[in-house]
Design goal:
heterodimer; A: alpha+beta; 3 domains; five-stranded mixed beta sheet; 5 strands; 48% helix; B: mainly alpha; Rna Polymerase Sigma Factor, Chain: A; 9 helices; 0% strand
């Protein structure tokens, strides 16, 4: 068999010969033992390879990939040498996040209630859960019973589930999105912790029984919501002094921002890069 | 790779080089599954493949300014991915001829049934492992990822004729390896309709 015949044998095995020519090619192959053997080999290999389905990342692998790349990019931006280590599927704080999910939901909502009192912005265009909360709680600083009483849990759960369903390239979707803030709003958030009312009273302690109180009626939506970790939890937790007492998510100038508050202050990280955006100095 | 995808990639690369990180995210979203597919076929291990995909995109992030635009972005990206995968294989000393485990990796508890379906048949895995890296690359890109021969040639930096030859010979070796594992003929005798 001549080398130039290989293309024809390969093309016939691949199925790329036109039906009109296929009969002629088959005839030619059948007259040449070497060609027939090559054709069978090509076809056997191709038949086996065709059974292989395209590979795709699972949701968890995709999230790990995004997180790993984002962390490496942050290191590049900080001038460190990045290494490829996909982030673990769940770290200590992520487990804590999941374990204290009810508290997070409540605290985020509580944060949303307080927000309108700063910076003069009307946040009634924020997400539906907050809107519902704002209409049900008149005071800027909610009484604990009022905050827990937003059960209207179905509303919270639905909003959380909606948020959990959002596909964000920068990592896992947020628990709740608070709507559009401005940098001025962010600066105004750095206020005495006492003004956050319930937030201060609810430490992130897995053994704290009260956090089990506001479980939404829709437990499946709740479960889905709490399985979506913040994307910058490790960075936020390492940067904030004194440990966080709550987490929040907002958008500022169209950027997704993750907020971490401790007893002594607040920091904000851009979710896509986990770079500190507040305070800036 | 359609022209519209290539055009969109070019626009995204330009935006990224102008400092738009979202453009990088979009490039990644568009190609991460294909890059993972290439790396998985090369590494034969999902964890290692995931590492290699991550390293690939970090390299792209750091060296995007080296992309000249003479070829499609995807061609450049898959070249980076292929080189990264084989570099990591060498580093990990996980040669393609290493014996395969009897069982596949433990299932990801969060994955669905379709996820498991992408794993290769053990006999095919073993047969692929007998190929030299040059043949393996050619068959992964041309037959398993179904990339056009010209693009495979550009990725590997060899003429199209060389790719054709490598693919042909790789299939032949693959078939021999499959026959050696399964002495009974595997395929039906019918023709392959054009």
């Amino acid at each position: 068999m001549h080398n130039h015949d290989l293309d024809l044998v390969a093309a016939r095995a691949e199925g790329s010969v036109s039906p009109a020519d296929a009969t002629l090619v088959d005839e030619w192959i059948s007259t040449c033992a070497e060609c027939s053997q090559e054709f069978e080999s090509q076809q056997l290999a191709l038949d086996s390879l065709r059974l292989v389905e395209p590979a795709a990342l699972s949701d968890i692998e995709r999230a790990r990939l995004h997180r790993g790349v984002r962390e490496a990019i942050a290191e590049v931006q900080l001038g460190k040498s990045p290494q490829a280590h996909p982030a673990p599927a769940g770290g200590r704080w992520l487990k804590l996040l999941a374990g204290s999910a009810a508290a997070i939901l409540v605290l985020v909502v509580a944060f949303g209630v307080v927000l309108p009192s700063f910076g003069g912005r009307d946040t009634t265009s924020a997400d539906l859960a907050l809107e519902a909360t704002q209409t049900s709680v008149a005071a800027a600083t909610p009484a604990p019973s009022a905050a827990f009483g937003i059960n209207d849990d179905a509303t919270v759960a639905e909003a959380a589930a909606d948020a959990a369903g959002m596909d964000s390239m920068v990592g896992a979707p947020p628990l709740l999105q608070l709507g559009e803030l401005t940098p001025e709003d962010l600066a105004n958030l750095s206020i005495p912790i006492e003004d956050f009312g319930l937030a201060r009273a609810t430490p992130l302690d897995q053994d704290e029984p009260t956090r089990q109180a506001p479980l939404p009626a829709d437990r499946e939506a709740y479960r889905q919501a709490i399985e979506q970790p913040l994307t910058c939890s490790e960075e936020g937790l390492s940067l904030i002094d004194g440990g966080p007492i709550w987490f929040g998510i907002a958008t500022i100038d169209g950027r997704l921002i993750e907020l971490f508050r401790s007893e002594t202050g607040l920091i904000a990280l851009e979710a896509s890069t986990c770079v500190l955006v507040f305070p800036t100095d | 790779m359609t022209a519209s995808r290539a055009d969109e990639d070019s626009r995204l690369v330009e935006r990224f080089l102008d400092g738009n990180l979202q453009a990088f995210n979009e490039l990644m979203a568009a190609h991460e599954d294909r890059v993972f597919g290439i790396c998985l076929r090369v590494m034969r291990d999902r964890e290692l493949a995931l590492d290699a995909v991550q390293e690939t995109f970090i390299t792209v992030y750091r060296k995007a300014d080296k992309f000249t635009g003479e070829s499609a972005f995807s061609t450049w990206l898959y070249r980076v991915a292929t080189n990264t995968c084989y570099d990591q294989l060498r580093k990990n000393k996980r040669r393609a001829a290493d014996p395969l485990p009897d069982a596949t990796d433990p299932a990801d508890p969060h994955s669905d049934a379709a996820f498991a379906a992408v794993e290769l048949r053990p006999d095919l895995q073993r047969a692929l492992a007998t190929l030299t890296p040059e043949f393996h690359k050619a068959i992964v890109l041309a037959d398993m990822e179904a990339l056009p021969l010209q693009q495979v040639a550009d990725i590997l930096g060899v003429p199209v004729g060389t790719v054709k030859s490598r693919v042909f010979r790789a299939r032949r070796q693959l078939a021999d390896a499959l026959r050696n594992q399964n002495p009974e003929p595997q395929r039906r005798n019918g023709d392959n309709d054009a």
